[in-house]
Specification:
The protein is mainly α and 167 residues long. Helix content is 53%, strand content 5%. It contains 8 helices and 2 strands, in the order αααββααααα. The mean pLDDT is 89. This is Rrf2 family transcriptional regulator.
């Protein structure tokens, strides 16, 4: 299983939006410049985040993007689902029904009425990951990064850089 780089881009860039005042917004260009990433790709990521209701577009000359929800209500899972979609990671094709030893016109109940155990295990694993990612919020990430990980000088420099670019 592999998440696209869009999930990483989203998490890192949303982190910088946590401190925005209600009337303020940040431009994709500034987020992309700060992170050293593709503005074009980040625009596509932000379109998905907007569609999912995680962020909102702020129109106008001084427009940009702002969080549409509080950081406490935005989970890692919300972001993963916004970027990757909501299809299950594991897609069961029921190949067990193609077993050469079976009569295709008269499949036994074990192959038609019982769930595929492989599918069951994979969906359980996905649900466990989902439950865990639902416990991690943008507010949690902000606290961990800015209050426990980054040196104070880097935190201050980051906040200052964004305060000079925020609309």
């Amino acid at each position: 299983m592999k998440f696209s780089v869009g999930v990483e881009y989203a998490l890192h860039c949303l982190l910088y939006m946590v401190n925005l005042e209600d009337s303020k917004s940040v431009r994709i260009r500034d987020l992309a410049t700060f992170q050293g990433i593709s503005e074009t790709y980040l625009s596509k990521v932000y379109a998905k985040l907007t569609k999912s209701g995680i962020i909102k577009s702020v129109p106008g000359v001084k427009g940009g993007y702002a969080l549409a929800k509080t950081p406490e209500k935005i989970t890692f899972w919300d972001i993963v689902e916004a970027i990757e979609g909501n299809e299950h990671f594991f897609q069961c094709a029921e190949i067990r029904q193609n077993n050469i030893l079976l009569d295709k016109d008269n499949l036994p109940d074990t192959h038609t009425k019982c769930p595929c155990l492989i599918k069951v295990v994979m969906l359980e694993a996905e649900n466990e990951m989902k439950k865990y990612l639902e416990t991690k919020t943008l507010a949690w990430l902000y606290d961990e990064v800015y209050n426990h990980t980054l040196p104070k000088s880097m935190k201050n420099a980051t906040l200052e850089w964004f305060s000079n670019t925020i609309n």
